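User: I'll paste a sequence; please echo it back and then give the predicted structure.

Assistant: Echoing your sequence first, then the prediction.
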Amino acid sequence: MRGGMRRLFFFMIILLFLGTFLIIFISSILDKNEKEHYRLSSPKKVPPQSTNSCKDCKDQREIKKLIERYSKPWKKQEGNYQKFRSQLSNKCHGYDKAIITQANTPVGTKLVYDGEKKRTLQVTTEIFSTFAEGHPFSNKTLHTCAVVGNGGILANSSCGNMIDSAQFVIRCNLPPLSDGYEKHVGNHTDLVTANPSILLEKFGGLMGRRRPFVESLQKYGNSLLLIPAFSYGHNTPVSLRTFYTIEDFGSPTRPVFFNPEYLQSLERFWRSKGLSNVKPHRDNPHLKVNFLSSVSSNNHKENTKKDTDCDFLPWGKQDESQTFRSQLSTTCHGLDKAIITQENTPLESKLVYDGEKGSAIKVTPEIFNTFAKRNPFSNKTLHTCAVVGNGGILFNSSCGKMIDSAQFVIRCNLPPLSNGYEKHVGSKTDLVTANPSILIKKYKSLNKDQQIFVENLQVYGNSLLLLPAFSYRVNTPLSLRAFHATEDFKSPIQTVFLNPEYLKDLDHFWASQGVKAKRLSSGIMMVSLAMELCANVHLYGFWPFSFHPRDRHFLTNHYYDDEKGTGNFHSMSAEFFLMLQLHSQGILRLHLDDCNQ
């Protein structure tokens, strides 16, 4: 038995040895074959393919040409240089005219805006005092100038020392110079430009706290700060505020203004050199401007000796008013389409909700009977419209008589007009809007309290009550109840509904002007209607900030309460700034001052 176990043990050892040998032998053969196969069939390396195919071929060819041209040896050609410099100087007279001074632009001069050829501004004593007293440049020709753009090519360029070695360094649009950028862009600055759009975007148009702006200028030392104050109407107030801010805080930076006459000469010169598509740069006020977010309610008390706002500058109606009004009318057809009538919306029509694009409602006889029988607006253009917002700026404004003097007065969202408010907001009303949210909140969706609702409408007389009945489905039954309530209690007010097709056209029009919002506010809707209805449009109570533009005193959200809006449904700051731009272009009149001043 013991011998048998021993033989079995040795037999298993031999099998294990043979098995191991066979595994090693087979593995070596397979490995050799695999290496040979890899050597014979290994694919050739293929360069990576461009994901853009030939999409950018044209740009690449242009860049190649530019590099070839740039790579040629450079040498200053004195004859060519002097000839070109002489031509530029003879055409533009930049040394004498580029910057406005008290010597070249005396009191009483009429400045013609280079970006708005039909807009002018007479130099008053106050404006004159902001001009440079003496010429900022010496008579001596400098040896070397460095003009520093802000292109990404400067990143990691190590050009800082070379830039700073220039005798005169010009920088564009308030660029950063610290945080490690010094090595690549330097910090020597003799002149720096500032587009007003930057002042609006980064510093809230200097309407609130101004110290951060002045502190940001420290890196430019006692350089000149050059601003195109008279290129466009909306540039002027922010440029003057810049001057006063620097003066107030004793900054060593010296603000100076481009001469619009020089810029016009410059444009003609470069056109003659083949730059046929050159246009004066227009600071776009809608470009990422969140005016409201730049100014908080806690910073409105920054003191300044002087202040200037667009409303406080001389205003005159411009020829652009008719052009803009025509564009608006051609796109939106407000006089015919703004209000639903039995003529423009017949029985069986399908109304598509403008706030819910996938929803529609068919006009039944019951709904049709609630529509105005005819257009409530006459074909005759009215002389003056007043559109009255509810901003806190109207509180103690004494604007009541001025508002009531308008031929047609539009008010928004059922505002209070009694209890002493008449002096400041007036009482005359020809059209008043009502947001369904107000009917829900104040009148319990008109499921009850209908008589109270109608009694409260008495303050608006026999005006039109305008409701967005077909913007959202939830609005429709509520708006129909409002109509029936005014009918049942024999109110002299006439209930009418906004046409959702008009609102869609209006949304497209203002989007093309830079207003991007989930929904336009009632205010801008009524301003739009007024611009088609009236030859002269005046706005009151449109100021979405918590401080007064004149003396910075605190303002409530509305002239009658301080209740804040919820969410970001409307783009109030963008809408306001667009109104400010239209004001500066003489298209409408925005009132931001007390009316008794």
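Residues 20-56, 278-312 have pLDDT under 50 and may be disordered. The first strand starts at residue 110 and ends at 112.
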